[in-house]
Design brief:
The structure is a single chain. The protein has 49 residues and is mostly helical. The chain has a domain of 31 residues. It is built from two helices and no strands. It is rod-shaped.
């Protein structure tokens, strides 16, 4: 009973590798940089007036 289908399925799920998230990390950093740069531009325009 040690090789039941449920245990085989659990082993297969556990052995799957995690998806690559490098693209997601780069996209999050790019959006964050855009927000920060935009904020500084708007702040500079505000101070200049």
């Amino acid at each position: 009973m040690s090789n039941s289908p449920l245990q085989k399925q659990n082993k297969e799920i556990a052995s799957e590798t995690e998806p690559e998230l490098k693209g997601t990390l780069i996209a999050v950093f790019a959006i964050g940089a855009f927000i920060v740069i935009s904020w500084f531009i708007v702040f500079a325009l505000f101070v200049a007036r």
